[in-house]
């Protein structure tokens, strides 16, 4: 028979899902099995894993295998402490709102049923709740956070101030994350893969020119520069840019939008500063691709399929 059982949410998640009243209900009602069709919405029920479909709006696709196995081992010993959250699709089918990592680990642990909060939510609410839960995870990299922020703005139609309120961040923090998505793809990938810290990234977004961003990025990778060193290098590069503009350089005309885009794309491809020299209206000119070492040259030649 079902027995009295308290199941609490992790820190911050109860506030996120507004389940304060649900928790009070759970302390008054037993955990129900998925066969109990009269289970009240918001209560904790044991639901068959095979009846739960993954949330199509889940913004996170990368799950660390070792961390999943460690969670699965814990679940084998202690059970699933923190319930997942689902919405009811029909009488015996559910769709995951939040807790995909816990659900995956439960499958690895061999569970056939998991405790779950049952909620009503439309697709818009599902997306917003999944994104907010995803953002509040501690092990997300900065690009994952930025992408989630951008999705909330684009798909949930939120302004930056509203987004900040939803995720308990001030507007400047939200803005800094969103600006990461304007960095060249090679730098975004390095942030995603934890080759660059958020501190490095914050320094790089203060550089306006993409080729200069890539130059500094390569210096970070080659020399293992600290955040403080990168901030100093950024100030130096920006100061040099201001001085060169003040001199009124008439030898080299500014590139057209089309040529500037080509230069930026090449710099992104080769992860180094690329200079496109256009000499006349017919488009005659040259491309300069600098390299810092024999290994760096080899890397560039490999990209050129040399």
TrEMBL record:
Signal peptide range: none
Keywords: Chromosome partition, DNA-binding
Gene3D superfamilies: 1.10.10.2830, 3.90.1530.30
InterPro entries hit by this protein: Chromosome_partition/occlusion, HTH_ParB/Spo0J, ParB/RepB/Spo0J, ParB/Sulfiredoxin_sf, ParB_dimer_C, ParB_N
Pfam family, one: ParB_C
Residue ranges of domain ParB-like N-terminal in the record: 45-135
Domain of life assignment: Bacteria
NCBIfam families given in the database record: parB_part
PANTHER family per UniProt: CHROMOSOME-PARTITIONING PROTEIN PARB-RELATED
Family statement drawn from the similarity comment of this UniProt entry: Belongs to the ParB family.
Protein name: ParB/RepB/Spo0J family partition protein
């Amino acid at each position: 028979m079902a027995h009295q059982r308290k199941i609490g949410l992790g820190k911050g998640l109860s506030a996120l899902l507004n389940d304060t009243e649900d928790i009070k209900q759970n302390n008054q009602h037993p955990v129900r099995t998925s066969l109990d069709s009269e289970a009240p919405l918001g209560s904790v029920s044991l639901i068959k894993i095979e009846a739960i479909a993954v949330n199509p709006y889940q913004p996170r696709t990368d799950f660390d295998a070792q961390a999943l196995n460690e969670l699965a081992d814990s679940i084998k010993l202690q059970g699933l402490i923190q319930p997942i959250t689902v919405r009811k699709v029909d009488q015996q089918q559910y769709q995951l709102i939040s807790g995909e990592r816990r659900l995956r680990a439960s499958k690895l642990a061999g569970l056939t049923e998991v405790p779950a909060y049952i909620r009503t939510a439309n697709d818009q609410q599902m997306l917003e709740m999944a994104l907010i839960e995803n953002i509040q995870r501690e092990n997300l990299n900065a690009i994952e956070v930025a992408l989630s922020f951008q999705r909330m703005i684009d798909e949930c139609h939120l302004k930056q101030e509203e987004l900040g309120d939803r995720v308990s961040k001030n507007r400047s923090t939200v803005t800094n994350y969103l600006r990461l998505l304007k960095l060249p793809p090679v730098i975004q990938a390095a942030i995603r893969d934890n080759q660059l810290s958020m501190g490095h990234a914050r320094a790089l977004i203060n550089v306006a020119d993409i080729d200069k961003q890539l130059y500094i990025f390569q210096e970070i990778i080659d020399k293992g520069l600290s955040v403080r060193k990168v901030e100093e290098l950024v100030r130096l590069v920006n100061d040099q840019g201001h001085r060169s503009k003040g001199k009124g350089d008439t030898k080299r005309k500014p590139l057209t939008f089309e040529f500037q885009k080509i230069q930026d794309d090449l710099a992104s491809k080769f992860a180094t500063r690329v200079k496109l020299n256009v000499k006349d209206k017919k488009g005659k000119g040259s491309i300069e691709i600098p390299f810092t070492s024999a290994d760096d040259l080899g890397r560039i030649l490999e990209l050129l399929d040399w």
